[in-house]
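Input.
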Amino acid sequence: MRTNPHVLEVNARNWIKRIQLLTGNNAITLANVPESYLLDFKARGFDGLWLMGVWKESLASREIARNDKGINNSIAQIKPDYKKEEILGSQYSISAYETDAFLGGDGALQKFRERLNDLGINLILDFAANHFAIDHPLTLTEPEIFVRSKGEPQDKSLFFQTKNGDWLAHGRDPYFPPWTDTVQINHFNPKARAYLTGELQRVSQMCDGLRCDMVMLMLNKVFKDTWGRYVQEETPREEFWPDAIEAVRREQPFFVFGAEVYWGLEWEVQELGFDFTYDKILYDRLLKSNAQDIQGHLNAEHLYQMRSIRFISNHDEEEPVTAFGPQKSMAAAVIISTIPGLRLFTARQLRGEKRRLPIQYFTGEFVEDKACEAFYKTLLEAVDHPCFHGGQWVLKNTKPINDTDESYRNILAWHWTQLTTCKTVVINYSDRPSRCILRVDKLPEGKNIFIKEELTKSHINLPLSEVKANGLTLEFKPFESKILSVDF
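Output.
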């Protein structure tokens, strides 16, 4: 993948269902997706496709989901006439790392990957190393690799009893209730670690990269704080991930590892060998904070920036149009698309979907907002330029128009330079008109400076001497963004 790659998350089952509906062909699987869909990924400049939810569905998870009031209520608010048969098991309650039959099985996945790779696109899949589905076969044959209670537990909400009588723990984030369709792996158990490493090696042969689920839950200190009272093993001297990642990279040196991680543990997880980690801190600041706070975050160490996953949308978050509002979501999208790091988008984000669906809802019905689609088409075309991938990034400071106008503080700016091209990104991240002066470091020779604005396709033509002396004076509507392009 390129430096600062673009990755698209697609819900695998719903995407295939949609293609079946549009083509009238229920025999469509990953093996025979029409070429036009793959060419569209290429045309929009995606380096990777995160095909979310390809693994074999857990029947136990399906039953739990169909009887979950929260899931049913969420779906009913969007589609009151839904059918319970449209609810499937969670894609993160995995009963086997085998491609689900609806998608065509492992052979279909292999063909799909080959077709993507022929277009220069990497296939990224999920790996949930913290837990399995409660009906995973190992719960009956190898119960010792899971967290379990010696006898009947006091808090039965954390455990379930298998057919063999073992009380095994559900997977959980310690700040939230347990995921009742999952079973918690004992990460201090050597046999569990060996099994997970083997699975990781096997799954890595099926794709070009993995988005690893809730990675921080497997860190020794986090696992001990969460489950220490229930495990007999001593805390391992080493973390799980470095050796496991090395085992994969011995066979596939360029394999990409991405981590879902929170709680300020991003750098620590990067140090364990992950190429990229979620940047939830930036997401939260984009959602709730101002331009000054966002700029403060972007002053972090450059290597950390380049290894961060920038996003305003994924399957766990509310859709950007609703969470941010239409105008603000577009400004936020320009930000995450033009700073260093892996730039993550979702198919629902690009369509302008307004309501987040539970991942368990199986539907091929999509909503499309033409204005939102047009915006992302223009944005993706602009940021596909090599300057945003191979250029040098510099965060810029803006200056006030005069001594009394403080609106310049609402404006974020940075530029990318590569060879004879400079791309300057300037964003008013506020709900009021704002103005600033921006100094331009590199200028072409000649009498005038000719600047193209990429998002509106407009142009600025100014005397070069004026820009050298005074900088660029820029005015913005609320949440307006400009991508200024100069060749010199």
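Residues 87 and 361 are 5 Å apart (CA to CA).
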